[in-house]
Amino acid sequence: MSDRFKNWMLAFRPKTLPAAVGPVAVGAAAAFADGSFHASAVLCALAGALFLQVGVNLANDYFDFKKGVDTQERLGPVRVTQSGLIAPGKVFAAMVIALMFAALFGVYLIYRGGWPVVAIGTASIISAVAYSGGPYPLASHGLGDLFVFIFFGPVAVCGTYYVQALEINTLVLIFSLPPGLLITAILIVNNLRDIGTDSKVGKRTMAVILGESGACAEYFVLFSVSYLIPVALWGTHAFSLFILLPLITLPMGAGLMKKVAITRGRELNPILGQTAMFSLVFSLLFSVGVVLQG
């Protein structure tokens, strides 16, 4: 039983879950600042996001094995399907169950927000599968970075805000940019590590297209823009110094950028988890700054 639990934890990839938490926190903070906070909606949005993230992870594990992307040359953490730890059919079934649970929590959000939530939820589930599955896998055609940014940034943050306030504004869209950018940076580390093996199997991620130096530059740009957004908000004089709280992470962010510049191969695996945790810390500090604005 212990081995089974460990294998499923490998499949669920708990270190990626901060990517689901950060955007919801920012959306909740924006609604709180506007006096529109709704606890039940936030909890359902968080649960749905977590199950959706697990579903994406399982889909990636299953479809990358089926399409021959994951091989014995893989440099990343163990994939349970490719390694034979869990049968492909079980991984696929678990993916379906995770996505069903995500949809289940979405029922209450549909009750609150109506058809816009149906559209958001449907697009999110389709993208979760299409990221690595289907006839045109997004991740294999250089579109992974764009879709991760869209769904973990504007869609997740604005969607969380919408199910509370039942409206959207431009400021919330701006708030959504740092989480989307930093979660995209997690993907960049993953794809930078796999440039060699992805190239061999014809998987053209953005890192493969840009090359190592280009992928590193993309990582630096995403970090830099994420830091510039709270500074720009403060510069409008509409926000107090609290909006600059994410700048506390500058030493950590600079350290990660330095590591990405000089690290390659399996040594990037710890940096993957560190970037995920950085995105969460940044988003939480940003959320506090939004709540304390004024």
Strand content: under 5%
Structural class by sheet pairing and helices: mainly alpha
Distance between the termini: 53 Å
Based on CA atoms alone, the radius of gyration comes out at: 19 Å
CATH architecture verdict: Orthogonal Bundle
Biggest pleated-sheet summary: none
CATH fold type: Farnesyl Diphosphate Synthase
Give the topology string: H per helix, E per strand. HHHHHHHHHHHHH
Query: How many helices in DSSP terms?
Result: 13
Task: Based on Cα principal axes, name the global outline.
Answer: globular
The number of distinct structural domains comes to 1
Helix content: over 70%
CATH class: Mainly Alpha
Mean of residue pLDDT values: 90
